[in-house]
Amino acid sequence: MMTRGLATAMWTAILLLIAIxxxxxxxxxxxxxxLVVSGxxxxxxxxxxxxxANPWLAYPHIVPGVLYLVGAPLQLSRRFRTRHFAFxxxxxxxxxxxxxxxxxxxxxxxVPFAFGGAWQSLAAAVFGSWFLVALLLAFRAIRxxxxxxxxxxxxxxFAVGLGVGTIRIWVGLFALLxxxxxxxxxxxxxxxxxxxxxLAAEAWLWWRPNANGRPRRSVLP
Length: 221
Ligand code: HEM
Hints:
Layout: H1 2-38, H2 49-53, H3 55-76, H4 78-83, H5 85-110, H6 118-143, H7 147-176, H8 182-207
Protoporphyrin IX containing FE (HEM) is lined by residues 21, 24-25, 28, 61-62, 65-66, 68-69, 102-103, 106, 110, 114-115, 124, 127-128, 131, 160-161, 164, 186, 194.
């Protein structure tokens, strides 16, 4: 019973974070597209300036990232996976390519053009690399038929991708509490948001270590 409640809470949080990312991706497109199409640069020093000036670096990060994030929950749902295993395999290949593309451009765009400066660049490099390593090791594991490790690395990768929504919550909190300007809030928001997700994934994997996803016996009431 407790486990079912926890699962509901977890899926609710996942869907909420995906919704947050979708809203911000939509706002990005709505702001950038008219300027990119008309060739008008964004206001100097504005948040959107880097996106409008480098759409060929920013959008290969955002578009595949959004598709990956929307598609991945289907792959992680055990019920869906067991019922549609052939689809899981085919769709999984597509999602890995989308995730890797987004991750590579997180480094190519996110590191040199970070809004929040050097500490944000470092966070993008560290967590972007972790995201890519996790996806590649998940792929390698399943090529070796190691379902247990495939699941573990996929959960780690997804946790980082989902962290993008939590970054936005932190940025919002910094603004709400008047703790930092938008620019100054970005680096701490990246470190807090993404490290929380990495730790949450490790806790989840400690609690549910195996391919069947069942909790450890010892911690059950
Ligand atoms: C996989 C799912 C991902 C999605 C859907 C996604 C989505 C986005 C979106 C929508 C933006 C624009 C920000 C805004 O306008 O609010 C963005 C920027 C960015 N993303 Fe991602 N992202 C993903 C993964 C990652 C990962 C794994 C990293 C690496 C840590 C990363 C690093 C960045 C960086 C550094 C920026 C630039 C922020 C800035 O403007 O300074 N993203 N992403």
